[in-house]
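Supplementary notes for students who missed Thursday's class. We covered one full example, reproduced here. Read the sequence, then the structure, then the short commentary at the end.
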Amino acid sequence: MANNLKFEVVPVAEVPTEDVVALPDKNKPLILIVDDERIIADTLSMILSRSGFSTMTAYDGLAALEIARSTPPDLVISDVMMPGMTGVELAITLAQSVPTCRILLFSGQAATVDLLEKAREAGHTFTTLTKPVHPTDMLKRVSECLSQKNAANLQSYPVDDSSRPATYALN
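Structure (token representation):
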């Protein structure tokens, strides 16, 4: 069976080793990628940038929170299991402090079930996408979330309306 999908392979030497700050293009949706594994965060950032999105990258939840508060992204894609602040804690905090932001969670660890169950008990529902995620699937989910955000912006919701989903995650 022939595989018609072509993906550019980026040598590890070309992946940035230092934090880089770039101003987002206001004409493109802004996505913040959060993962404590730099190679994963940087690779996702590169894939999304080359697919027409503006991206920012953070390597822990606290840095992501600071970035999102200073430059609110349209979407945050976050790993669940990170040292310090987990992706679930980040998602809950962002839902309260940057309510216009959508959130996708992904994880490669089974331990996320407990974190997600605790969040569900507190009234926050998340689903997850299991790593590794195929770039085509990631781009599809990103487009879906941004479409949902644009549809939500056409409606007027009270800030404290808990019936409106504030976060989205990959499944």
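Commentary. Residues 74 and 100 are 7 Å apart (CA to CA). The mean pLDDT is 76. If anything here is unclear, bring it to office hours.
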